[in-house]
Design a protein that fits this description.
17% strand, globular, alpha/beta, 300 residues
């Protein structure tokens, strides 16, 4: 039995779908089992737990052979500390809690969906917390696999799709920064296939895989490809980073969940490049180009 935590999220649901397609028995961990059952029409076993509350994980991990941790907080990358939706609480502590529960339950393999840029000395705290989660897993004694995707796009992606949707009512697409950062976007279904293979292939044990799409391009080119897929012609209106961060700072003070924060502006503007040599050597996936992926869900 493979348990996918965060299985109703954008990435998690792609992993679940691929595992089911391969005939694997799957359980999905979530805070709301009704939501899990509805999302997968009863094709998975729903298990209820909150990864930030260790006591809830004990029974949820019983009888599980492999855990795939694809948890993200609902507003990621926009942190909402008052609700506990932060990289520290969810990405780091949530992973630590799951690793310890997995050890106690006798789980054999633990797969962590981390992120490109994770490093102990990273400039951004979200990368440091992801690396700390990785390191705890590596030192746990469990058989581990770490997958670090770059920028994941797909039908439920709120980053690229939000930018492209400005073309629905504006004569331009706004962007903070110059848009020249190097990107290697990866389609969500490809992430699902890679992680499913990482969860089941013996050769993947104790391996780190960086995962990016087959093309390297600028963020400007990513947006242009998206607009082309939608059949739109719009100029990209670049705004200075400090403008976006100032707007995000003000919005983060609102009593509601902010639609933007200064950190989120930084997150979106980061380069996202992967070293896929180990991925290709061990798992050898076939990956979609950006235009191929976009055509599966964007129509003129």
């Amino acid at each position: 039995m493979i348990l996918v935590s965060g299985g109703t999220g954008m990435v998690g649901s792609a992993i679940v779908a691929e595992l089911l397609r391969r005939g694997e028995p799957v359980a999905v961990l979530g805070r709301d089992t009704a939501k899990v059952r509805q999302a997968f029409a009863g094709t998975v076993e729903a298990r209820e737990a909150d990864v930030t509350k260790p006591a809830t994980l004990t029974s949820a991990f019983e009888g599980i052979d492999t855990v795939v941790n694809a948890v993200q907080f609902p507003t990621s990358p926009i942190e909402v500390p008052r609700r506990g939706w932060t990289f520290e609480e969810v990405d780091y502590r949530g992973t630590v809690n799951q690793v310890e529960a997995a050890r106690a339950a006798g789980v054999k393999r633990f797969v962590y969906v981390s992120g490109i840029g994770a490093a102990p000395d990273a400039a951004k705290h979200w990368f440091r917390f992801k690396w700390q989660a990785e390191e705890h897993l590596r030192q746990s004694g469990l058989e581990w696999v770490i997958v670090r995707p770059t920028w994941v796009y797909g039908p439920r992606d709120v980053s690229l799709n939000r930018l492209l949707n400005f073309s629905n009512f504006l004569p331009f697409v706004p962007m903070f920064g110059d848009g020249n950062q190097a990107m290697q976007p990866v389609f969500v279904d490809d992430v699902g296939r890679v992680v499913a293979t990482a969860a089941t292939k013996p050769e993947a044990a104790n391996q780190l895989f960086e995962l990016g799409g087959p093309e390297v391009m600028s963020m400007n080119d990513v947006l242009k490809a998206g607009l082309e897929a939608k059949g739109r012609k719009r100029p990209i209106l670049h705004q200075p980073m400090f403008v976006g961060k100032a707007i995000g700072t003000v919005m983060s003070m609102l009593p509601i969940t902010p639609p933007l924060t200064a950190d989120a502006v930084d997150f979106i503007a980061e380069p996202a490049m992967a070293d896929t040599r180990n991925l290709q050597a061990v798992l050898a996936p076939e990956l979609m180009t950006l235009r191929e992926g976009l055509r599966t869900y964007l129509k003129p």
